[in-house]
Automatic annotation (TrEMBL):
InterPro entries: Aldolase_TIM, NanE, RibuloseP-bd_barrel. Keywords: Carbohydrate metabolism, Isomerase. One of its GO terms (molecular function) is N-acylglucosamine-6-phosphate 2-epimerase activity. The keyword Acetylation does not apply. GO terms for biological process: carbohydrate metabolic process; N-acetylmannosamine catabolic process; N-acetylneuraminate catabolic process. GO terms for cellular component: cytosol. It catalyses: an N-acyl-D-glucosamine 6-phosphate = an N-acyl-D-mannosamine 6-phosphate. It is an enzyme of class 5 (isomerase). This is Putative N-acetylmannosamine-6-phosphate 2-epimerase. The keyword Isomerase applies.
Length: 230
C-alpha cells in the first residue's frame, strides 16, 4: 500500500479549519492547532486554504490532506483542476476534492480532473469527498485513491443525520473498492470507534476537536436552555 496511506491506517485524522471572518483564520494558529492535535495522537491532518497548507506542510511530519473551499454552495471543495494543482503545489500529499457527480465549475469531469492532477503530480493521492454511494462508485471509476463520506448530508442526496451517516458509511465500505475515511459529524469518541468497527480505514474529526466557536455554542445553548427551564 502507498506509504502515506499506510501511515493513516486505523488512525485519527484531525481537520483543522477556520472560516472567513473567524478569529482563528490564521496559518500560524491553524498550524499550532494541528501540532497540538498530533501531540494528542492524530496520525494525519486535514487543512484548508493555500496559506494554511504551506504552513502546515512546513511544520508537520504527518500526512497532510489539503483542500481549498470556494464558496459554500454546490461544488465548493477544491472544485476545479486549477484548484487541485494549487493545493498539490503546497506539498500536501493528499488532495481532497469534491467527489460528487455534480457538474464542476470548470466543466471538467471528475476523471479528467483526477488525471490532470496526476499528470502534473504523479505522487499525489486523491481523496474524493462523496455524498452518497453513487458518488463513491463514480469516484472509484474516476480514479480516486481514497473515499470520504465528507459530503453525506450536504448535497441534498442524503438526509443530514445528527451524527455520522452510518447507512452511507456501511454502503461505501461494502463496496470494498478503496480505503474509506469516515468524515462528517463525528462528534464523540464512541462514534469514531463505531466508524472503525464498521470498516473505516481511518476517521476524520473536525468540529468536535478544532472549532471552539461551535463547541462553545453547544455548551452555551445547554446552559441557556437549562436557565430557561429553571
Ligand atoms: C461539508 C464540509 O464542508 N465539510 C468540510 C470539509 O472539509 C469541513 O467543514 C468539516 O469540518 C470536515 O468535513 C469535518 O467534519 P466535522 O467538522 O463535521 O467533523
Amino acid at each position: 500500500m502507498n506509504p502515506i496511506l499506510e501511515r493513516l491506517r486505523g488512525g485519527l485524522i484531525v481537520s483543522c479549519q477556520a472560516y472567513p471572518g473567524e478569529p482563528m483564520l490564521d496559518p500560524r494558529t491553524m498550524t499550532q492547532i494541528a501540532l497540538a492535535a498530533v501531540e494528542g495522537g492524530a496520525v494525519g491532518i486535514r487543512g484548508k486554504g493555500l496559506d494554511d497548507l504551506r504552513a502546515m506542510h512546513a511544520a508537520l511530519d504527518v500526512p497532510l490532506i489539503g483542500l481549498v473551499k470556494v464558496g459554500h454552495d454546490g461544488v465548493f471543495i477544491t472544485p476545479t483542476l486549477a484548484d487541485c494543482l494549487e493545493v498539490a503545489a503546497t506539498g500536501a500529499g493528499i488532495v481532497a476534492l469534491d467527489g460528487t457527480r455534480r457538474p464542476r465549475p470548470d466543466g471538467l469531469s471528475l476523471a479528467a480532473t483526477i488525471s490532470g492532477l496526476k499528470d502534473a503530480h504523479p505522487d499525489v493521492l486523491v481523496m474524493a469527498d462523496c455524498g452518497s454511494l453513487a458518488d463513491a462508485e463514480a469516484a472509484v471509476a474516476a480514479g480516486a485513491d481514497v473515499l470520504g463520506t465528507t459530503l453525506a448530508g450536504y448535497t441534498g442526496e442524503r438526509p443530514k443525520t445528527e451524527g455520522p451517516d452510518w447507512e452511507v458509511v456501511d454502503q461505501i465500505v461494502a463496496l470494498e473498492a478503496l480505503p474509506v475515511l469516515v468524515e462528517g459529524r463525528v462528534h464523540f469518541p464512541e462514534q469514531a470507534a463505531e466508524a472503525m468497527r464498521r470498516g473505516a480505514f481511518a476517521v476524520v474529526v473536525g468540529t468536535a476537536i478544532t472549532h471552539p466557536t461551535t463547541l462553545t455554542r453547544w455548551f452555551a445553548d445547554a446552559v441557556g436552555g437549562a436557565a430557561a427551564t429553571a
